[in-house]
C-alpha cells in the first residue's frame, strides 16, 4: 500500500495543476446538483414506501385525506362563543375556505348549525336570530353534548379542514395562508383565532429547517475557525491554520451536490449532515496538513515533504475512512428511510472530504512552498521551536497510563457493562411533533388543540366493500363502534363513522330498510360524508379517538384489540387498521430493534474490514475495534442519566461513533507500528506516537466536537440539540479511548508477547 501512495504522491507533485483544475470543474457540477435539493417532512421519511403499512396509509390518505388544518377560535366566555355575529364570522371563514383547491371537507360551528337548521327548517342556513341559535346550542345555559365536538369548552371553537389525498405542501400552505387571511378579515367580538394542526407544522417545517441549517452552518464555521486558530499550530502565516476548513467547504459542496443529483431530500435527519461533515472533514484535512508540516519541519525538500506525507499518512487515513464507511454502512439496515439516507450521505461526504484533502489541500501546500523556494530540491527551513503544550502534556501522560493497564481497562469495562444494562431502559420518542421545539407559537397552539379536543385520533379503520352503505355493513360498523367504546382496555373516547352519522340522523338507531338509509345519505351534506365515505361507496373510514398522550405500548394493545374485532367482517368486506397510531408503532419498532441491529452490524463490519486491511490479523483488528465499541456502553450511561431519549437521530449513535472513533484508534496504532519498525521499545514507541500524532488527533477530535456542537444551536429542533450534545460527549469519549484505553491495551499486549517470546527463547 505504501508503494501505491508513494506513486500517488509523485503524481500530485507532477500533476498538481491538472488535479486542481479537475477539482474546480467538479465543484461547478456539484453546485448544479445542489440547486436540485428539496425538503421532505412527510411520512415517507420515516416509513419505507415499499411497506404494507405505508401503502395502507397512502391509500387511506388518497381517499380520505390525512392532512388537516385546524382553526382554533378562543373566546373570552360562553357569551362570546354563542354570539350570532361571531358564529356568522366563523361560518364565513368556513365558506371561503371550502372553495380553496385541495380542500376535501370542512366541519366547524357553522357547518354544525346549518345541519341543525336543516333538520328544523328544512334548509341548511344559519339561525336567523340569537334566540334560535341559543336554542340549538344550549341546554339550560350550557353547551349541548352534541355541540362538544365543535365547542370543546365554553371558551373554544374548532373548525377542521381536511385536505384531499395527495395534496402538495404548496397546497397546504396556500390553505393555511387563506385561513389566516380570512381570520384577519373577520369581524370578531371577544374572540381570537389562529391556524394550527400537524399539517400547519409541516408546512412551516421547510422555513424552520432552512433557518436552522443557516444557523448551524454559521456556528460550525465559527467554531472551526476558533479551534484551528487555538490548537492547530503549523508553519507559515497564521491564516494557514484555516486551510483545512477551506478544503472541507469544497468537500461539503461535493456532498450536497451528490445529494441533489441522487435526489436525496433534506429531512430532519439529513439536515444535520453539513455541520457534521465540516467537523469530520476538517479532521481528515488536519491529519494530512499535520503530517506534511511534520515532514517539512525535519528539513525535507518540498517534493520530499509532499511525497513522504502522502506515503505515510495516506494509507492510515484511507484505512480509517474505509472503517468509518463500514460503520456508517450499518445505517442501511434501518427501516427508517431518512436514517438510510443519512448513512449514504455520510459515506459520500467523508470520501469527498478525504479526496479533497489529498488532491486539493496538499497540492495547494506544495504549490505555495515550491514558489517560496528557488527550487524544489531546496530544503524547507527547520522549525526549531520546542514542542508545544499539547505535545508536552501527552509526553507526560503516556508513561503514566502505560504503567496502569489493569486499572484503566477495568474501569472502562465496568462502565461499558453498566451502559449495556441501562440501554433497554432508555425511552424512545416516536412522535415526530416532539422533534420540534414545544416553545414555538405554532406548537403551543397545536398542544392547546390536543388538550381541548379531549383526545387524538389513534387509528383509522379503512373498510372496503362492494357497497359500504349496505345495512349489513353499517350494522357491523355500528357494532364495532359499540365494542370499542364499551370493551376496549385502552379508553376510547369517540368513534366516528358513516354508520354513526346515519344512526344519529335517524334517531340513534340505524333504519331497518335500505331505502331509508339511501334517503338519509342523500340529505347528508358532502362535506360531512367526504371524510367518512368515498363517493363510489366502496371505502368507508372509522375514526377511533383516544385520550392524548398514550404510550406506544397502549397504542399497540389498542391496535391488537381492533384487529381482533375486525377478524370476522361480513362476507365481501375487508378492513385494515391504519393512521398515525400505526405509523407510530411502526416507527417505534424501527428505532428499537433496528437500532440494536445497526450497532451490532457496525461493530461487525468495522472488525471484518480491519481484519482484511490488516492482512487477516485478528488481534490488530480487535485492538482497533474494542476501545471504540466500549463507547457505546458509556454513551448509554450518559443518555440514561441525562434523560435523553432515542430518536431517529440518536438511534444512529452506535454506528456513527464507531465510524468516527475508529479513525483515532487506527491513526494511533499505525503511528505506533511505524515507531516500532524503527526499533523503539513498546513504551518508547507509544510515547513517541502519542506525542507526534496526539496533537493532530486532539485537533481532529475537537473539530468533530465543534461540528456536532453547531447542532446545539438548532433550538427549533430538539432532535438535533439532543443528538449534538450526546455525540459531542461521545467524541470526547473516543479521544479518551484512543489516548488512554487504547495505548494501555497495545503496550500491555506487546509486552506480554515479548515476555512469551523471551521465555520461549530462554527455554
From TrEMBL:
The keyword Transmembrane applies. The lineage of its organism: Bacteria, Bacillati, Chloroflexota, Dehalococcoidia, Dehalococcoidales. This is Hydrophobe/amphiphile efflux-3 (HAE3) family transporter. Residues 248-367, 638-748 form the SSD domain. The chain crosses the membrane at residues 213-235, 242-262, 268-286, 306-332, 344-366, 401-422, 598-616, 623-642, 648-672, 693-714, 726-749. SUPFAM superfamilies: Multidrug efflux transporter AcrB transmembrane domain (SSF82866). Keywords: Cell membrane, Membrane, Transmembrane, Transmembrane helix. It is found in: Cell membrane. Its main location: membrane. It is a multi-pass membrane protein. PANTHER family: MEMBRANE PROTEIN MJ1562-RELATED, MEMBRANE PROTEIN YDFJ. GO terms for cellular component: plasma membrane. Gene3D superfamilies: Multidrug efflux transporter AcrB transmembrane domain.
